[in-house]
Design a protein that fits this description.
This protein is α/β, with parallel strands linked by helices and 330 residues long. Helix content is 51%, strand content 10%. The chain contains twelve helices and seven strands. It is globular.
Length: 330
């Protein structure tokens, strides 16, 4: 226990692997022991990697609870099992991806993405926010994506789910300011925002790697041959180039999240990779929307070879150094 102050209770969804696992471990192994981490996952049989990474923090500053964000009952039972239902920081990390020509994706598959990425996050906020309002204290953090700010071809449904949560949180942040939901350990500050979006670009996770391998081999019934060819022969190679050149690690995202938690005035939006700032700015520089649409079209279909060379050079020049310098939201 950190001397002189109580530990913050931090509940994190989606901790069996990737970003959620790394956030849980980083906070649980905090040298000052400022956090008691409640790491959740749908299936506790998948806990082994988290337990191993947590080391001696497991059972001390880190505990596990089962949680399916797609179930009202599971969400309620999970929060009810927390002492006094008291949560200082809620980190909504659970999410699923979906990639490919939209003609080949069933409506049920699309609904599953929204059920986790959007409604799952809303479910968690609805369950935790009332107590935060009563206490006028707390911090809600959402793992969004740069795709919640800029659409990406062949990621139509995933992008839509992130746009949805961005819009929801923009609206919610205004209300929370009125309730002055803040960190009780900090001095009162004008304009404190206690709802924060973490917006990574490409992140090297097993989830992403496995998905890329699978989609390259899949058939896409319902999609015409040209669209499938553009997807497999143009988009996927370009996407792999971008991941290799610009991709961050789950540890990078965890460090950024920890900085947001510990900031006295956390930002509402936190791009983890500053290399994406010009891309986002370009979208808002042209009210017609044509600039960003045509730029991405040309990069993908007209200047694909040039982009491949550029990404290769950038990968050599950065040697991970540039990417490591982009993790701070401050």
């Amino acid at each position: 226990m950190a001397s002189g102050c109580a530990q913050k209770v931090v509940l994190i969804t989606g901790c069996s692997s990737g970003i959620g696992l790394r956030i849980a471990v980083l906070l649980a192994r905090d040298e000052q022991k400022r956090y008691h981490v409640i790491a959740t996952m749908r299936d506790l049989k998948k806990k082994d990697r988290l337990v191993e990474a947590a080391g001696d923090a497991y059972g001390k500053t880190l505990t596990l609870l089962p949680l399916d964000v797609c179930s009202d009952d599971s969400v309620r039972q999970c929060i009810d099992s927390v002492k006094d239902r008291h949560i200082d920081v809620l980190i909504n990390n659970a999410g699923v991806g979906l990639l490919g020509p939209v003609e080949s994706i069933s409506m049920d598959e699309m609904k599953k993405v929204f059920e986790t990425n959007f409604f799952g996050t809303v479910r968690m906020i609805k369950e935790v926010m009332p107590d935060m309002k009563k206490r006028r204290a707390g911090h809600i953090i959402i793992m969004s994506s740069v795709m919640g700010l800029q659409g990406v071809v062949f990621n139509d449904v995933y992008t839509a789910s992130k746009f949805a949560i961005e819009g929801f949180c923009e609206s919610m942040a205004v209300q929370l300011l009125k309730f002055n939901v803040k960190d009780p350990t900090q001095l009162p500050l004008q304009g404190v925002e206690r709802l924060s979006m973490i917006e990574p670009g490409p992140v090297h996770t097993e989830f992403e790697t496995k998905m890329m391998q699978e989609v390259a081999k899949m058939e896409y019934p319902g999609a015409d041959a040209d669209t499938v060819r553009y997807f497999k022969d143009v988009y996927i190679p370009s996407s792999i180039d971008i991941f290799e050149a610009l991709g961050q690690t789950p540890e990078d995202i965890a460090k950024c999240t920890k900085k947001v938690i510990e900031s006295s005035q956390p930002r509402f939006r936190n791009l983890t990779n500053s290399l994406y700032t010009p891309i986002v700015a370009m979208k808002y520089a042209d009210e017609t929307g044509g600039l960003s649409v045509h730029t991405f079209y040309n990069l993908l279909f007209n200047f694909g070879s040039l982009m491949h060379i550029t990404m290769s050079i950038l990968k050599c020049l950065t040697c991970n150094c540039l990417r490591r310098r982009t993790i701070s939201p401050d």
